[in-house]
Amino acid sequence: MDRLCLRRTVTKSLFRLSLRLLSTTESLLDSPSPAKVPEEHPPAPSPHTPRQRGRTPSEKQFETWIDILKPGFTPIEVNEALRSQTDPDLALDIFRWTAQQRYYKHNHITYLTMIELAISGKRYSITETLIEEVLSGACSANLPLYNTMIKFCCGRKLLFNRAFDVYKKMLKSEDAQPNLETYSLLFNSLLRKFDKITVCYVYMPSVRSLAKQMKACGVIPDTFVLNMIIKAYSKCHEIDEAVRVFHEMGLYGCEPNAFTYSYLTKGACEKGRVNQGYGFFREMREKGLLPNKTSWLVLICSLAMDRRYEDAVETTMDMLVNSISPDLLTYKTLVEEMCRDGRGEEALELVEMFRKKDTYMNEKTYRALLDAVQLPDHDL
């Protein structure tokens, strides 16, 4: 009986709870939903959203040339495309892109064009990279290409040794044997090192070896190359070798010029062979050639120190006639040597004559020469 009463009580409670839930649900369904407020402005884009970048003019030109180069293009077509470029960076992009295409490989023509464009555009680091590629075998050997590489290396102080690496590779090649231009570049590069007497002796063996290799290759030198060899020997006071090369000039059909005689005159005088140096000077003047100023001054000082005052004065007057003025050291050397030899009065007369003839002599130089004159029995 008690269980029956408990069951009825639970049933009534559950019934009441169901009615409450039902009424609550109906009220929610009957109530109107809140109206959706329209947005006045669209949502702002996220700052991290990437914007689409436009193409630059260089990229457009690059794509244009890529479209022009049809599949199966040849190095000749690539070379034409490279030569049409004024921008070396764009040319390099085309050069690198074509190199990555299947069944294509650059040759010596395209490498030469690209190196010339890089040099003219002052892209020196790119030029060095291209040279290294060529030396590594990126293309076949070619004489104009290798000479261009040597010319660039000779013009860069840090690439001096690299120029001779290219030259050694040329010696081993059948298609790019060195020619006169090659040796002109190398000799000229070596002679730039001859600015100090101590350095001359360091590089003199290289000059001698290069001259022998030039003969072995059958290359006929010109006056410019022979003059550089004569200059190198004269700088190192190897006058006999310099004279030997001088006499060989006729065998090669070369005519000595003012530089030839100037190097020989200066070198012989510095060696102490004043008579030989003066002989070269006289031969040069008979041909109507004028030496450079340095050779003239060295000759005058050498003649004065050798007590050949008449020849020294004649050479000085010849210098003044050609509107070239000696420096103070040369004047003083001549005057002081004459005074030491007891010819002070003649030296004084010379000073007065030099003052009249030398339009470039200033008062300071004139006073210094007067002070250099020694007259034991006369008071200036």
Descriptive notes:
The protein is an all-alpha fold. It contains 19 helices and no strands. Helix 3 runs parallel beside helix 5 (108-120), helix 9 runs parallel beside helix 11 and helix 10 runs antiparallel to helix 11 (223-235). 32% of the residues are buried. The model is unreliable at 1-8 and 21-41 (pLDDT under 50).
3D shape? elongated
CA gyration radius, whole angstroms: 45 Å
Uncertain residue segments: 1-8, 21-41
Strand content: under 5%
Distance, first to last CA: 166 Å
Order of helices and strands: HHHHHHHHHHHHHHHHHHH
Task: Briefly characterize the structure.
The protein is mainly α. The protein has helices at residues 2-30, 57-68, 75-83, 88-99, 108-120, 124-135, 143-154, 160-172, 180-191, 197-216, 223-235, 239-248, 258-271, 274-286, 293-305, 309-321, 328-340, 344-357, 363-372.
Fold blueprint:
Blueprint: H1 2-30, H2 57-68, H3 75-83, H4 88-99, H5 108-120, H6 124-135, H7 143-154, H8 160-172, H9 180-191, H10 197-216, H11 223-235, H12 239-248, H13 258-271, H14 274-286, H15 293-305, H16 309-321, H17 328-340, H18 344-357, H19 363-372
